[in-house]
């Protein structure tokens, strides 16, 4: 059996699709792959190394930082700096963006969550790295505006899932391609070319223990999805890992919709726009799916702060659009829901 192209070979082949490319972009993506391999080796041994468990410190969001978060964060930062193609980067684990020293500075901006789902580290549940790449907007000094960009402006996005195998999934705007790590070769090999989300949304993925806090439309949407299961066939299953990358990847491969809506406890939801929702929205769109905050496409949202949260509905386009219909208060009863009306001040 012929092995698929390696990640580096594939990235170089994609370079031909970008006439202006001079190899910098390819070099940068390859270095993100190197970071993924290093993190994967640490994740695979986490139970054996004294890095399991919390480091005792808390990050900018008041969340206990797991040691593996710190290791993954440092790994990505170092690989990006050494690539020589990055001007600055923003990480979930860094209060402010990190500028690359002048001598090693390149033309790209990278945003990333080094290890999402870290609360699952100690119980051996799949976790992931999420990233997006932008060309620096301003030619001169790096400013916050280089990061406050709509996801539609990204030139690449992707994620790594450390699951039963380690997969690197990315897009440069020409389809979504998945690579599986062969640890014995130390290489990612193309295993899932041109991924498209299946037409049928067979998975419904959200944390239903939040239902006491939901706006009414969320309950109606969930009810609509479950009502598709009738006597002759169960069409929708509830699947929720509680690790965004794992939930997203399963839905991408099997068809499904993931929601983390805003609610009474957290009106803007829990997930981060710049380095979680937007990169996955880029992938979803390239795979024939969609992503929304309930009112607008995630890729069109212009962030106003680095660690901004956003409600998220992501997966099959039809179900994302249906969720938007419910959020606008035109669910099954066609009436504007009380909450929505109050929220919009039209009550
Ligand atoms: P909850 C993991 O901590 C994470 O950031 C995402 O990976 C996941 O989707 C979400 O939080 C789970 O949050 O409130 O359901 O535990």
- Alpha carbon gyration radius: 20 Å
CATH overall fold name of the largest domain: Fructose-1,6-Bisphosphatase, Chain A, domain 1
Number of strands: 15
What is the H/E order? HHEEHEEEEEEEEEHEHEHEEHH
> CATH-wise, what's the superfamily of the largest domain?
Fructose-1,6-Bisphosphatase, subunit A, domain 1
Strand ordering within the main sheet: 4-3-5-6-7-8-9-10
The biggest sheet amounts to:
8 strands, mixed
Hetero groups in this structure are: 6-O-phosphono-alpha-D-fructofuranose
Low-confidence stretches: 333-347
Which bin fits the share of residues in helices? 25-40%
Chain-averaged pLDDT: 91
CATH architecture of the largest domain: 2-Layer Sandwich
Which class do the helix and strand fractions yield? alpha+beta
How many H/I helices?
Answer: 8
Q: What would the principal axes of the Cα set say about the shape?
A: globular
CATH class of the largest domain: Alpha Beta
* Strand residue percentage: 15-25%
Question: What is the total number of structural domains?
Answer: 2
End-to-end gap:
65 Å
